């Protein structure tokens, strides 16, 4: 069974950067699409960015030009580079692998201070 573990969250000032990582167990990582979601307090979980197994990416309008999703299939790891962070980016960030069913990580907190 695939397990996902996120890391890299933390507290950063507005305008700063963070890189999130999502390490996947097992050898099937390269075969599936992956994505990052986030959930702010009192709000629904929303898609931030996604990447197909071939490397095609898409982003939420709110993060286009600031965030970059990437994957390293040799390391079974998904990344989210976040630049020019804003207070409204504050949320718990989750990675997800899209198998026949969805598998989620436990989340990592990102807090952006103004």
Any overview of this molecule?
With 114 residues, the chain is mainly beta. Helices cover 0% and strands 52% of the residues. The chain has strands spanning 4-7, 10-13, 18-24, 34-39, 46-51, 57-59, 67-72, 77-82, 91-98, 102-104, 108-113. Strand 5 and strand 6 form a beta hairpin. It is globular.
> How many strand elements?
11
Using only CA atoms, what is the Rg?
13 Å
Q: Give the amount of beta strand, in percent.
A: over 45%
Query: Low-confidence stretches at least 5 residues in length (pLDDT < 50)?
Result: none
Give the ordered list of helices and strands.
EEEEEEEEEEE
Shape from CA axes? globular
Name the descriptors.
about 110 residues, mainly beta, seven-stranded mixed beta sheet, four-stranded antiparallel beta sheet, 11 strands, about 0% helix, about 50% strand, globular
Layout of helices and strands:
Elements lengths: L3 E4 L2 E4 L4 E7 L9 E6 L6 E6 L5 E3 L7 E6 L4 E6 L8 E8 L3 E3 L3 E6 L1
Parallel strand pairs: 2-11
Antiparallel strand pairs: 1-3, 3-8, 4-5, 4-9, 5-6, 7-8, 9-10, 9-11
Short overview:
By secondary structure, this protein is mainly β. The protein is 0% helix and 52% strand. It starts with a strand and ends with a strand.
């Amino acid at each position: 069974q695939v397990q996902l573990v996120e890391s890299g969250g933390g507290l950063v000032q507005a305008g700063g950067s963070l890189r999130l990582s999502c390490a996947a167990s097992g050898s099937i990582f390269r075969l599936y699409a992956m994505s990052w979601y986030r959930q702010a307090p009192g709000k629904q979980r929303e898609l931030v960015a996604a990447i197909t197994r071939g490397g095609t990416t898409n982003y939420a309008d709110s993060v286009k030009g600031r965030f970059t999703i990437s994957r390293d299939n040799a390391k079974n790891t998904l990344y989210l580079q976040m630049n020019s962070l804003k207070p409204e980016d504050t949320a718990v960030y989750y990675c997800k692998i899209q198998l026949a069913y969805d598998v989620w990580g436990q989340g990592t907190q990102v807090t952006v201070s103004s």
